[in-house]
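Now for a concrete sample entry.
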Amino acid sequence: MVKKILKMKKFIVLALAISLSLSFFNCSNDNAENQVNFSKISKSKLKQFMLEKETTARIIKVDSPGGPTDCRINILSLFSNIKESDKDEILSSFGIFYDIRDNNLIGNSTGELYINAYYYLSSNLKNEPVTIEEITKYFEILPVIMSIKGKLNDNNFKGIVITESERDELINLVNYYKAKKVSDSNYQEILNSIIEDIASITNRNSSQIKEFLAN
């Protein structure tokens, strides 16, 4: 009985030691991630590419103030193999993206090029079939977008808007779309530029990102 108690005590001590070590490791990572990078941000690679290629105009027909008929997110909501509740969730999420467009992109030099890039990419994907995998990725990235949007537009938030983990999730999504049209050089270059821009604005605060989008 005494031996069992001693073994149990040793186990508890070991467990506590491991827990404390993990807590210290996690706190160290959190502190490192929460340090805003105040070094100068490079100019947008997307802006540089689109201006060089003169790809700044929308190249597809806009049928209403709401946007083009082949907007990729809108096409996802029309996918016939998903349940109605998922369609409703996609439709209800449109407001998030409209808010980002209207409050963070429109009226900003680089921001408006991101709008153009979105429609350019959507038009290139209009004949690509929607899959369950793409729907799943949409739902997976939605909380990340909501988190970034909330931090970016919170005047009281002074910390990092896009963390390294959020950066990785965004880049994973871009890479997913890169694989859809590997032979289209402009399409690939735009997505590569977006990846570079995401990396540039990671670990930055809202003021830095807003300045990036404005210039």
Summary: The first helix runs from residue 2 to 33.
